[in-house]
Amino acid sequence: MAILKVIIAQPRGYCAGVEMAVETVERTLQRHGAPVYVFHEIVHNQHVVRDFTQRGVHFVQSIDEVPRGAKLVFSAHGVSPLVWQKAKEKQVKIIMDATCPLVEKVHREVRKSAAQGYWIILVGHERHDEIVGTSGEAPERIRIVADVREAKAVHIPDPDKVIVLTQTTLSVDDTREIVDVLKKRFPLMILPTKEDICYATQNRQDAVKQLAGEVDLVLVIGSRNSENSNQLCKVARAHGTAAYLIEDRHAIDPSWLTGVERIGITSGASAPERLVQEAAAYFRNQGAEISYRGLLEENIHFALPAEVSPLNLSR
Question: Residue 130 catalytic?
Answer without folding.
Answer: yes
